[in-house]
């Protein structure tokens, strides 16, 4: 499933194709959304906003579209009227004179008046968005300090969108590595310094991944490994999906652990538990 950085990049692409442009043609697959096709033609898209793992497309009038891609949904932006080469089934199409934005495959799609957004069951429980430029390290640190979360195991807490929104499976392993915190710890077992490092890593690595197109490793590590002709899989992350490979920082072999069915990756030396 895409994480915050990927959703933000999709929103950028959609904004380039749709923002401030008048919709010339519109298609919805679901019968209950069909009545909106006529209504939206002639309206402009104001902008597209990423919200954790969902996207909100605002229209000129008082309407907006909530879409959540779940596991399989995928947006394509192409020249107006062009069709991407895909066997997926089309759910939404927004066309203007220059571009077509097409949403394929199983997704949750709703049209609602903008005033109702705040009551949306998915949106209303979201914690601070780690990629949002207004989300400071201080705001994130407050979450790590919040009493409500102290008894939670860090590895599962980091996937909880009400704690920090936009963090998913690869970011959580990378964040804990960067902060030198062991994934087996509960939040209350972390020191203030560790929480400060976790907050800083949450912000830095999410923004970095957004800016680099998914790379979380330090730029120096990436450059050094590229000089050695390493593959993207080798340099992209510190620990995620690197079980048995050597830690870029200390050379220890990376290990994995299964928490709630999803693997968490860590370096047993860099993330040793401090007694
Ligand atoms: Zn290490």
Describe the protein in words:
This protein is α+β, with helices and mostly antiparallel strands and 275 residues long. It has two domains: 122 residues, N-terminal domain of MutM-like DNA repair proteins; 130 residues, Helicase, Ruva Protein, domain 3 (Orthogonal Bundle). The chain is built from eight helices and ten strands. Strands 1-6-7-5 form a four-stranded antiparallel sheet. A hairpin with a 2-residue loop joins strand 9 and strand 10. Helix 1 runs parallel beside helix 6 and helix 5 packs across helix 6.
Structure in a nutshell:
The protein has 275 residues and is an alpha+beta fold. The chain is 29% helix and 21% strand.
Low-confidence stretches: none
What compounds sit in this structure? zinc ion
Overall geometry comes to globular
In helices, the fraction of residues equals 25-40%
Query: Strand share of the residues?
Result: 15-25%
């Amino acid at each position: 499933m895409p994480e915050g950085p990927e959703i933000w990049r999709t929103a950028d692409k959609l904004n380039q194709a749709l923002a401030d442009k008048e919709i010339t043609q519109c298609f919805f697959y679901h019968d209950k959304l069909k009545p909106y096709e006529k209504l939206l033609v002639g309206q402009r898209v104001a902008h597209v906003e990423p919200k954790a793992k969902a996207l909100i497309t605002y229209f000129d009038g008082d309407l907006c579209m909530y879409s959540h891609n779940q596991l399989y949904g995928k947006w394509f932006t192409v020249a107006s009227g062009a069709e991407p080469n895909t066997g997926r089934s089309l759910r939404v199409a927004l066309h203007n004179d220059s571009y077509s934005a097409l949403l394929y495959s199983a997704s949750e799609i709703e049209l609602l008046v903008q005033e109702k957004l705040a009551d949306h069951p998915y949106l209303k429980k979201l914690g601070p968005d780690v990629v949002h430029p207004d989300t400071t390290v201080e705001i994130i640190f407050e979450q790590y300090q919040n009493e409500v979360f102290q008894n939670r195991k860090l590895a599962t807490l980091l996937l909880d969108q009400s704690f920090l929104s936009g963090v998913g499976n690869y970011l959580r392993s990378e964040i804990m590595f960067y902060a030198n915190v062991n994934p087996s710890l509960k939040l209350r077992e972390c020191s203030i310094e560790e929480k400060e490092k976790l907050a800083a890593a949450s912000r830095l690595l999410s923004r970095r991944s957004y800016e680099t197109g998914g790379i979380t490793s330090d730029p120096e590590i990436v450059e050094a490994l590229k000089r050695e002709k390493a593959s993207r899989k080798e340099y992209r992350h510190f620990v995620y999906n690197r079980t048995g490979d050597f830690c870029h920082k200390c050379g220890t072999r990376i290990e994995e652990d299964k928490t709630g069915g999803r693997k968490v990756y860590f370096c047993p030396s860099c993330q040793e538990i401090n007694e």
